[in-house]
Amino acid sequence: MNIGKFSINIGMGRWFSSRELVEACYQTLLGRAAESDDVLRQRARQALTARQIIDSFIHSPEYKEYQVDRSILDDNLRQEKLSIDVDVSDAVRDRLFARVQDEWTRLGESEPHWSVLTANEFRADVFQDHADDFFDTGKLQVTDLRRTASRNGIDIDAYQSCVDFGCGVGRITLPLADLFAQVHGVDVSPGNLGLCAEYARTSGKKNINTILLDTIAALDTVPQCDVLFSLIVLQHNPPPIQVHMLRTLLAKVNPGGLAYFQIPTYLPDYTFVAERYLEQDLMGMEMHAVPMHKVFGTLRDAGFDLLEVMQDNYTGIGASHRFCAIKRA
Ligand SMILES: C[S@@+](CC[C@H](N)C(=O)[O-])C[C@H]1O[C@@H](n2cnc3c(N)ncnc32)[C@H](O)[C@@H]1O
User: Fold this and answer.
1) Relative to the CA of 104, which ligand 1 atom is closest?
2) Which residues line ligand 1 (CB under 6 A)?
3) How many Å lie between the centroid of ligand 1 and the Cα of residue 235?
């Protein structure tokens, strides 16, 4: 075994190799294993002292993200009650949806790519220089979907059709169209959806169909599908809209089909009371959470078996989860 460059005396006649320290840092400071044995070996070799190894971890962006994430989750676990309305009248639901529609219509006209990934390089004036990076991120999401299915014993290639709900400009819709025979991109923003249709046309992907969600009732026009996919979409909707959309879309998944979607399950100091919320002005690109038990209940009522809940950092502030579930045949 390569023990790294130096060893640290940890007392009682025991020594810790630099490689073991790197391994321990991965587990305790990042909460995960290293990517590979090579990475472990390389990091152990690069450092001259134990301090250097520890510093290289605690000054990394991943460490900062992980710590924020953990503190938000710890905060969540201290709560005894989450005051989040998910059931509202049809009239209130329509008013909530109209606000989502206004905001995303505006964003789709002014900053379509940035509205999808809020990094400065995706702002309208410089997007063309970074377009490849933008679309590469979409391919990774499809790889994640494939891996998730595979480790749950599901053959993703056996599925034919997919709904990409909140498809935006097609960042993920395009690679999804390499996986499935038919992909339906659904979005509330005419500007974003228009770009998705244009990218589908210019890339020659004839199996992408776009559907504008201009009313809540238009959800009825979303076709049945084998796979329901939705990332960083529901989070921008007030909780009653998230649950309503999810419930309606889950009903459209064919028996044996898959649902793969992301929702923030907790946000610090977050409460949602519909009437009070409607009295306030729109707050730009909003972020909302649905308690995890409500997501589980919605899946259960729709006849799904939960396969996995994966923590991610898609909100940028932690406590976001991807859910993967299969509809009972
Ligand atoms: C942050 S972007 C993500 C786009 C795409 N999922 C991706 O990851 O590349 C969110 C998209 O969801 C759309 N959206 C938000 N709420 C929606 C809703 N209730 N119904 C349909 N589309 C919605 C927005 O218009 C926007 O295009």
Assistant:
1) 25
2) 100, 104, 115-116, 166-168, 171-172, 186-189, 192, 213, 231-233, 236-237, 241, 245
3) 9
What digits encode the pLDDT tens for the residues 228-238?
999 999 999 99
Rounded-to-integer distance, Cα 236 and Cα 245, Å: 12
Give me the residue spans of the domains in the chain: 7-59, 90-327
Distance CA 249, CA 260 (A): 11
Give the span between the Cα atoms of 197 and 245, in whole angstroms: 22
- CA 230–ligand 1 middle distance (angstroms): 8
Q: Is the pLDDT of residue 9 over 70?
A: no
| Torsion on CA atoms 84, 234, 300, 255, rounded to nearest 10 | 170
Rounded CA-CA distance 249/295 in Å is 13
Q: Kindly give the number of the ligand 1 atom that is closest to the alpha carbon of 171.
A: 9
43 burial (CB, 10 Å; 0-12 / 13-18 / 19+) is: buried
Q: Which fold has domain 90-327?
A: Rossmann fold (3.40.50)
